[in-house]
């Protein structure tokens, strides 16, 4: 397999898919990354854990519908061009 732009895009889509399917109650709370663990004080800088959890929630919220379309296009391209 050659190192092409399409393979980089496909790898990025796979990573976004992996983040999008993480379930908060079933997986993330078991490893200590649930909603209740990210409570901080007013004026405190959010830590890396809180920022990553915000990123995961944002990806799950915003990218749900576009990921369906992008995955469909990738599947069609793979079926057509191998």
UniProtKB/TrEMBL annotation:
A Pfam family annotated for this UniProt entry: Yos1
Gene Ontology BP annotations: endoplasmic reticulum to Golgi vesicle-mediated transport; protein transport
GO cellular component terms given for this protein: COPII-coated ER to Golgi transport vesicle; endoplasmic reticulum membrane; Golgi membrane
Residues spanning the membrane: 62-81
Cellular location(s): Membrane
Keywords per UniProt: Membrane, Protein transport, Signal, Transmembrane, Transmembrane helix, Transport
InterPro entries: Yos1
Record-stated family: Belongs to the YOS1 family.
Function in brief: Regulator of endoplasmic reticulum secretion that acts as a key determinant of brain size. Required for secretion of extracellular matrix proteins. Required for correct brain development by depositing sufficient extracellular matrix proteins for tissue integrity and the proliferation of neural progenitors. Acts as a regulator of the unfolded protein response (UPR).
Name of this chain's protein: Immediate early response 3-interacting protein 1
